[in-house]
């Protein structure tokens, strides 16, 4: 193996990617999704020599037949498979060294994963002051939604007609006698 590479950093990166996005993960095994993320984030996938398909094929090749994850040892075998493909002009040892350098010390990136769409069209469509007809009834004067009361006509089962103004006064009238 490569002597000058700091194996602790490589193991550390392996563990960080192994637990990424999985609350039950122990950090000892890496699933296929996180293996692909590691290769993408650490620029092992370059789009020309190594593609995401190559990464998936190598993952399937090194893992145990019934397993869905790879151990750290299998991870190192997978890197040995990918290294000569990624660094074509180098010897096998130099290529392995170079691929370790790409990965060591890296962690999963979450930057730019989801962006909030903020365009003029979104602003125009969500401006409640421009709503007309039955839709404007769904919001109060400030533009805050009324919830279920704004969507449905809620029936009060009081027994009185809606336009009757003295609702609730019948019992009082009958007690007075």
Automatic annotation (TrEMBL):
One Pfam family it belongs to: p25-alpha
GO molecular function: tubulin binding
Top-level taxon: Eukaryota
Primary location recorded for the protein, binned into one broad class: cytoplasm
Presence of the UniProt keyword Cytoplasm in the record: yes
Transmembrane segments: none
Chain segments carrying region Disordered: 133-152
Cellular component GO terms held in the UniProt record: microtubule
UniProt biased composition (Basic and acidic residues): 134-152
Keyword Chloroplast appears in the UniProt entry: no
Single biological process term from Gene Ontology: microtubule polymerization
Annotated keywords: Cytoplasm, Cytoskeleton, Microtubule
Subcellular location: Cytoplasm, Cytoskeleton
InterPro entries recorded: EF-hand-dom_pair, TPP/p25
PANTHER family from the UniProt entry: P25 ALPHA-RELATED (PTHR12932), TUBULIN POLYMERIZATION-PROMOTING PROTEIN FAMILY MEMBER 3 (PTHR12932:SF16)
Family: Belongs to the TPPP family.
The protein's name in its UniProt record: Tubulin polymerization-promoting protein family member 3
Gene name per UniProt: tppp3
């Amino acid at each position: 193996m490569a002597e000058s590479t700091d194996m602790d950093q490589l193991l550390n990166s392996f563990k960080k990617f192994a637990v990424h996005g999985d609350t039950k993960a122990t950090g000892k095994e890496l699933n296929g999704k996180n293996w692909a993320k590691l290769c993408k984030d650490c620029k092992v996938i370059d789009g020309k020599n190594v593609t995401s398909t190559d990464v998936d094929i190598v993952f399937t090749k090194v893992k145990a037949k019934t397993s869905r994850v790879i151990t750290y040892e299998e991870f190192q075998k997978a890197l040995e498979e990918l290294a000569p493909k990624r660094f074509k002009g180098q010897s096998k040892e130099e290529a392995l060294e170079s691929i370790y350098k790409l990965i060591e010390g890296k962690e999963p990136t979450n930057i730019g994963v989801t962006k909030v769409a903020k365009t003029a069209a979104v602003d125009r469509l969500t401006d409640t002051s421009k709503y007309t007809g039955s839709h404007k009834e769904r919001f109060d004067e400030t533009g805050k939604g009324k919830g279920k009361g704004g969507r449905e006509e809620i029936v009060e089962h009081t027994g009185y007609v809606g336009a009757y103004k003295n609702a609730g006064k019948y019992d009082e009238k009958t007690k007075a006698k």
